[in-house]
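Person: Please comment on this record:
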Amino acid sequence: MKRSFTLFFVFSLALAGWFYLQPASDAKEAVPSAAAATFSKDVAPILYAKCAVCHHQGEAAPMSLMNYKEARPWAKSIREKVVSREMPPWYADPNHGEFRNDARLTQAQIDTINNWVAGGAKEGDAKDLPKAPVFSESGWKFGQPDVVLEMTEEAVIPADGTVPYRYYAIPTNFTEDKYIQFAEIKRGEPSVVHHVIVSVRDGGIPAGEIRGNTRRVNPEANDEQRAQRRAANQDAMLVGWAPGMDPLTLQPGNAKLIRKGSTLVFQMHYTATGVAAKDRTKIGLWFAKQPVEKQMLTRGVTVDPYKLVIPAGHANFESRSSHTFTEDVHIHMFMPHMHVRGKDFQYKLVYPDGKEKILLNVPKYDFNWQLTYFVKEPIAVPKGSRIECVAHHDNSANNKFNPDPSIVVRWGDQTWEEMMIGWIDYTIDGQNLKLAQSASK
């Protein structure tokens, strides 16, 4: 799959991570004139804050932007994508919710880049250049991981054809429970890895590829099989990789749990590129260094796969899913997921008294960017409240990404099939692991 400059550049900004990015502000910011704007004084601070985390040597972006010599050849392309707001990708409706990883540039930052290019993209005085960010020499975003786990065998990807999803079991060999605060996926051969989802399975599974694991829906299934199918879709996701997804990055006091003896399962979606390739993807794990109070849980608020049947040519097919909480919780993250016919996605909280609140609205969903939305302040969800997800799919010829508007589309793994999952991360209010650990001593 060929990836253009635009794709990589936008992706690199999206990957900057919640702790690198500052939400766009409405505060008045000074904008230099075209005659005065320089790289050293005005543009470098923006690139260092928003882009450099991926635009440095050894990262996913195709070019480094760490200095004037590297950035200058791309000046007009940078301006084009920034002014059009195609870069960085951010699809949340600003009228609903605040997010700590809001990747938007402020209008002043956009105007600054525009004026810099309009004024000839001058370098300026080197004395004005701020200190460049320093990145881990290990290539991992949080320094050297405590543990690196790798696929135990190479995946061989053919040059052509559709590659079914593959699943690989990787034993952790943990002899005690581990709480994970950070996790990051590294693709072995990035050119063929479309996405990765890593889930945790209690108990041992033989290492290597898990054969015969398909999730395509059988429309003739009975109610019991449907119930099993829905349960299977609730597998906990430890971390994923897809364009736009951030590594697992949890606040102190929160962590995900990997129990002793557990196995990690890598769901691998490979895409043939015309050249045969081999891949051995791995994951880095960082253990929580501070006492953990709450376990971060991940749930997919998923439409019944058997009811996701999108008629041929339908331009606005609606799908719904919901989950009712049986205890008080706080929500920390949203990640809507659909495929190429995905059109829009909304999360709504319905309180026990019937009051409603939109938590996240994505009016223009883009499958190319699987963005995660980390809320600025955790959202309180009282017991008995429910999360409702509403999405629409465009299976018409007007959808430029639609591979075939003449067919009925059902749930399935491949991008030419469909999904509708409202992923959330949440913690349980009544849980206090510090107290539990103290009591066990």
In short: Confidence is low (pLDDT under 50) at residues 1-23, 225-235. The CA atoms of residues 309 and 410 lie 5 Å apart. Helices lie at 5-14, 39-50, 68-71, 75-83, 107-118, 223-232, 433-440. DSSP finds seven helices and 23 strands in the chain.
